[in-house]
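Can't attach files on this board, so I'm pasting raw text. These are the components:
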Amino acid sequence: MLELRNIGLTMNDENGHPKEILKKIDLKLEPGKLYGITGPNGGGKTSLAKVIMGIYPQTTGEIFLNGQNISALTVDERAKLGISYAFQQPPRFKGLTVEDILTIAAGKKEPRAIRKKLREVGLCPEDYLDRNLGTELSGGEIKRIEMAQILLRNSQVTILDEPEAGVDLWTVQKLSNLFMWGYRNQPDKITLLISHHEKMLPICDEMIVINQGEVQKRGSTQDVWNLMKDELFSKNREQCQGEVGV
Amino acid sequence: MNLTKIDWNIMDKVADLHNVPTGAVNIRLNGQAAIRRSTPNVCVTNSPETGGLVVEFRAGVQGEIAHVPVVLSEPGLKDAVHNTFIVGEGADATLIAGCGIHSGCHQESRHDGLHEIIVKKGGRLRYIEKHYGEGEEDSPRVLNPTAKIIIEENAHAELEMVQIEGVNSTKRVTEAQIAAKGSIKITERLLTTGKQEAFSEISIFMQGSDSNAQILSRGVAQDQSRQIFQAALVGQDECNGHLECDAIIMDQAYIQSIPEIRAEDARAVLTHEAAIGKIAGEQLLKLMSLGISESEAIEMIIQGFLR
Ligand SMILES: Nc1ncnc2c1ncn2[C@@H]1O[C@H](COP(=O)(O)OP(=O)(O)OP(=O)(O)O)[C@@H](O)[C@H]1O
Ligand SMILES: [Mg+2]
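---
Top answer:
Structure tokens for the assembled complex are below.
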């Protein structure tokens, strides 16, 4: 069980003014479930994922994994405990190759596993293992390599941050299938799939909507999907139109 | 003269050598030629004028390799050399140079080298020079190489210069003249730690039409070390040049990067890029999220950057 209690996050914006990004988030996430996390841009989904991974230290609240308080653990300690995060925008590295980063992700697993996972995300190992993670890979390729790392890690808790972003339509379908087989109905695994995509969200068991730093809705995928379409987005549109006239 | 275990360790670091290589070789140990061998295609001798080493690849030979490492393991030695390396017309050659010092007895050890490199018409040279130092803290290791390079018409040279470990002070001067249709590519990689100081000055003169030059420098400065990198690309005819210096600064280090491009002909096309910065936090966090510690992540990023 992954439990977030009263998680708040305040960070400074570019002008140095504090901004409340997450407000009192309480969530209990159970093993065996694939959760879809969605909501408007800037709502706080990535920030929440980074707080769970330990990349952003929370301002208030605590996080428990299987009853253990992990709030003060560093990123690598959390990784070792079994938390993985696939970045929405993976950083690039001058000098490191695809093989280097996959080797770290693989840990003690056999080198053969690396090739297998690359193929699973639709990249041919012969063409990609030696490629540089600097600037010579496209955005979609970088995302797929990110997925290969996360599949290799095969953690108890996996957070996938818009895995479909920048990836071509064929691969989106492929990834969606991969997640369905790899993360759905896996008794020990807790998976958070952050997405806006109609090929991704329907495979989730449950949906959580994050808006303005809060959990706005939580429920079955079908219910939330319907509500979201009608209520949430029309409201946002109104707000925006209201401001246009000012 | 026999090489000791220490000498062989240095040979491994500077030239990946574990025994005397086949082919042309000159191993300079503590100021003298310990092992020297010529082959029918590569002549290794002494110059009557300078007294220094001359390695000449005969015209037209293909795929020849010569090793000319320098090892200083006698405490307090101050060694100076004047070498001449010649690649004959149309020859294709690889020269593995490199210098390693093992210092001790509270004394400075030092190697000053002047290398004249001539790549004749249509020749090709790949030149690799690694610097390495080890030994006692209070026995500084100093390396000051100067290279004067002449690239004749249609000739090409690729120089790889690496200093990763243990040299307290280095001043490197590299100067090249490139004739028509000739090209040069210089890659320099430098890691300094502790209180080490490194200064590198490169000047390339593209004198012939359609000549080409590339300089790529990567530096990492840690602790209180200092690096100064000064490079000038001078276009004196129709030519193409690119200069790139990229550095990672850490701790209380100091890095100065002075790229210069100079066109003395309207047909010269010259570009440069220079950047100094610390390791991006996002990169560290990404690697840590794969389960390695912060120090392991730093190590990986630096090694990759300098590879
Ligand atoms: N490092 C940071 N410093 C300051 N503000 C930040 C930082 N990271 C995110 N924010 C702000 O927090 C808010 C939430 O951003 P976040 O990236 O979590 O949104 P998101 O829901 O993932 O959006 P998207 O759907 O566009 O990916 C935004 O207003 C953003 O500007
Ligand atoms: Mg996001």
